[in-house]
Amino acid sequence: MAVIAAPSILNLNATKTNSSSLSAEALKVSGAYERVRGKPLGDGVVPNLVQVHKPTRLELASGKRVHWFVASEPGNSNGDKEEKLVQLTSWNEPASSAEHTFTSVGKHTVVAREVEADGVTLTGAAHTFTAYSKVVRYDIRDLSESDRSAYFEALHKYYVTSSSEGASLYGPNYQVNMRRVL
Fold first, then answer.
1. Are 123 and 112 in contact (CB under 8 A)?
2. Residue 167 in contact with residue 174, Cβ under 8 Å?
3. Can you tell me the distance from the alpha carbon of 94 to that of 121, in angstroms, rounded to the nearest whole number?
4. How far is CA 52 from the centre of its chain?
5. Distance between CA atoms of 119 and 114, rounded to whole angstroms?
6. What is the average per-residue pLDDT within 102-122?
7. What percentage of residues in the chain have a pLDDT greater than 90?
8. Which of 4-8, 28-32, 66-70 is least confident?
9. Dihedral angle at the C-alpha atoms of 40, 46, 51, 56, nearest 10 degrees?
10. Residue 125 belongs to what H/E stretch?
């Protein structure tokens, strides 16, 4: 797994290529839960489905070493007006996989740019994929120890916070309703 360097931003339009000139390539996405279960999120019904706010591993099915880029769609919940790519790999070190945490729900563009034999020069060939980031619910028995602990801490905070205190902390829409939680 490559070390993620400080991100650099590129214009997405500069990286789009005619995908018909490229060999068929597939994107593999997985989070910790998918790797443990051995099954993709949603059992693969939606291709490239990823969990928001959890690290996701991005790989090409062929295992090629490439430069990795990710962008969110314009108008996503993060408020971007235009799509810009963030580079996940170091400029001089392509990788067979990269790890990225999607921070907004919605469509995201994932680009794998091929490099020449020197490992640095971009060939111009790019594989562009769409990943769909969603909020994912799990059965409580399937949660990792840290996720289960975080869930119970949040639940406890909800139970012990009064409506007036919650409204001052979290906004006017906060209300205590025990039936909603259970």
1. no
2. yes
3. 10
4. 6
5. 9
6. 86
7. 37
8. 4-8
9. 60
10. strand 122-134
Compute how many other C-beta atoms are within 10 angstroms of the C-beta atom of residue 158.
15
| Burial class of residue 59 in the structure, from the number of CB atoms within 10 Å of its CB (0-12 exposed, 13-18 middle, 19+ buried) | buried
User: Residue 29: what residue type?
Assistant: V
Q: Render pLDDT for 127-182 as a digit per residue (tens, 0 to 9).
A: 999 999 999 888 899 889 999 999 999 889 888 888 888 888 888 888 776 555 55
- Phi first, then psi, for residue 94 (nearest 5°) are -65, 160
Token pair 């090409």: residue: 60
Residue 51 has pLDDT above 90, yes or no: yes
- Cα 95 from Cα 145, distance rounded (Å): 30
CATH architecture assignment, domain 9-134: Sandwich (2.60)
* Residue 24 dihedral angles phi and psi, to the nearest 5°: -65, 130
pLDDT of residue 160: 86
Q: Do strands 55-60 and 97-101 pair parallel, antiparallel, or not at all (unpaired)?
A: antiparallel
Domain range annotation of the chain: 9-134, 140-181
Distance between CA atoms of residues 111 and 121, nearest Å:
16
